[in-house]
Amino acid sequence: MATEYNAYVTTESIESDADGPLAGRTVAVKDNISTEGVQTTCGSAMLEGYVPPYDATVVQRLKSAGATIPGKTNMDEFGMGTTTETSAYGPTENPAAPGHVPGGSSGGSAAVVAAGDADMALGTDTGGSIRCPAAFCGVVGIKPTYGLVSRYGLVAYANSLEQIGPIAPTVEEAAELLEVVAGPDDHDATTREHDGATDGLADAADGDVDGLSIGVPTELVEGADEEVVETFWDAIDELEAQGASYHEVDLPSVEHAVEAYYVIAMSEASSNLARFDGVRYGQSGGYESNWNESFANAREQGFGEEVKRRVLLGTYALSAGYHDKYYKKAQDARAWVKQDFDEALDEADVLASPTMPVPPMEMGESLDDPLTMYLADANTTPVNLANLPAISVPAGETEDGLPVGLQLVGPAFGEQTIIRAGSALA
Amino acid sequence: MSESVVDPEEVRHVADLARVDLDDDEVERFTEQFADILSYFETLDEVPETDREADLANVMRPDEAHDCLSQDEALENAPDSEAGHFKGPKVS
After folding, report:
1. pLDDT tens-digit series, residues A377-392
2. Interface test with B, best of A313, A366, A371 (most B CBs within 10 A)
3. ipTM of the modeled complex
4. CA distances (Å), A285 to each of A302, A308, A404, B15, B90, in order?
5. What is the distance between the alpha carbons of residues B90 and A211, in angstroms, rounded to a whole number?
6. pTM of the model as a whole
7. 3-class SS at A143?
8. Cα nearest neighbour of A274 on chain B
9. Interface of B with A in 16-45 (CB under 8 A)
10. Residue B74 touches partner A, C-beta closer than 8 Å
């Protein structure tokens, strides 16, 4: 069923009669996750009409668990955006804050959950693309530890950073969905066996934060919008009232996380998106000219502006003479961020910050200024660089009723810890 | 900041390397935006050299044949095909 807020690219339903933990429930799937026999566009004109011949591992697991997939959700083109406005199929509106963006890039997935049109949804998170829309739409989103969930069948944007994860109205439901899709897969050699992170996730949503130690990285709070900061501290107060304690921590490396993230993500994107040549699938560049001209023509027609921008900047960052200056330094920054987080998590069970430094933007407000849009990812991108798990839970609203999210980051494969902590709030 | 000045020729050169045609308006917008974005990326200069303690392990499996897509399935999404092959433009 189509929505008035344009949350689906395709509304073809995929039924399952398996008797599993998700029987009778609907799980919408982001449109960069392959569904056999059902169009998968990645929000791009390049892949209009592309019908995958196989299922992603997570889709197979949804079907085995008895879930019904009501449709494929709208997204920023190839996951490149923070607002779900770069989709070739038009922007999605935020059902929890009309006139505002739902966040991105998994904006359609968060929107259908917020509106109650799907029970749950899968999104993907490369630099915040699950947590940002969860925060903006007032729902729960989990970015799993790198290696917990198979990426087989996910159309790649930046392989070293991205994970598939759940979006749901409550922490417990998000944990149930994560439990279904998590776990090793022969088709993805980056997945890892880890009992504590694949079992008992839903049971961990018991709301018990007595004795929980919370670190608050000052760098991720100071620059945020005033009302966001107030809402954040109210949520921390609530956790304290339930028995948690907090202390401030310094993470100097995160000042460089956004630029490191964008250099790495764009570099990986420039390589991954080279596959779109208009020959094996996607928009054809014609047959009249030579290979290079036809290839460049297919990509001119098939890619939107944000995708072109990132492919070009990634190509630039990897090109001779610039590799050491950008890509190598970005890898140094990534290692530094990881060290900082690991050290902070030696002294705390979880690290807390606002998920997004700003409330949801008005639609159309941020498209003309890409750098400002990138900077909105300041609090989410460090987590992907460090390969860690994080959850975004609703923290409250601004005076104008705009949702604000709280992000909790845990140690690698510490999904149970962030689920338990988050369940005290949602 | 002088290092990050980007001129339209450079944008066209990178677009050529990336095999993406751009129209003149895009070249103009990208020239301006890339100058901002690249000068922001240059703050990476302040990052200290850091040891990477990657916890990596090889993942091996037996080299056995498995089921895979049929030729028809592999060609299903191609804009055009000929005699069971993908059809592409001229190579030179």
Report:
1. 999 999 999 999 999 9
2. A313
3. 0.93
4. 9, 16, 44, 16, 12
5. 68
6. 0.97
7. strand
8. B18
9. 16-23, 26, 29-30, 33-34, 36-38, 40-45
10. yes
